[in-house]
Amino acid sequence: MAHPTNKWTGRLRYTPLINIAIFLVSIVTFGLAVSYAHDAIATPMQEQFIRKKRSRPTNSQIIAYSTAMPFFSILQSGLDLSLHFLISLHPVYSLVISILYFSGWLTQWTIWMNCEITAIGFDNAGKGETCWQVNLQHRQYSEVPILSSEGMVDGRVGLGGVAIALYAAYAVMALMAVLRNRRRSAKGVKIESTEMR
Q1: What's CA 75's distance to the chain center, in Å?
Q2: pLDDT, tens digit, 9 for 90 and up, residues 113-161
């Protein structure tokens, strides 16, 4: 078995910095998401939608919608940091995880953008069927729901974009490590095996 410390060499040894950034961005995004979920649960629906008997998600669904990706990213980046410092993080694992989380964040970010940024203040006819946020009560004389105050929505969506970029960088670093290790083994350079203590 190849010694894991030799798998993250050169510039790739800075990979934990990306994980630290992911961890911090996820914590802040999670905090904003919890605040958003709290406000979304407390904000009533507009009367016209209540009369049409449109349902809103349950409290559990709102919490899951708002906090799932940041929460799982906190767990994942914490685990990856622990594994890296315990000298057992494999680049192939990092590549697979980074691609999965990149895809998850991209999906979540697209939904957030569609239902929380572009649906507000634009022609949102028909979006009430798919985006429950459009049906929430608005401020008087405004197209903006009470919910989207204080930059909470913009901050969360912006940090989601940062998380996408960080996972893309993490995937690139992991791919470079995988390719470097394959190139080494193809040239016949054996990575010395040592016992992990």
Answers
A1: 11
A2: 888 776 555 555 555 566 777 666 655 444 555 555 557 778 888 999 9
Cα distances (Å, whole numbers) of residue 40 to 27, 96, 171: 20, 34, 34
The answer to whether the CB of 3 falls within 8 A of the CB of 194 is: yes
Its pTM stands at 0.79
Count other C-beta atoms under 10 Å from residue 156's C-beta: 22
Residue pair 192/184 in contact (Cβ under 8 Å)? The answer is: no
Query: What is 8-40 written as a DSSP string?
Result: S-GGGGGHHHHHHHHHHHHHHHHHHHHHHHHHH
Over pLDDT 70: what percentage of the chain? 70
What φ, ψ does residue 31 adopt, rounded to 5°? -60, -45
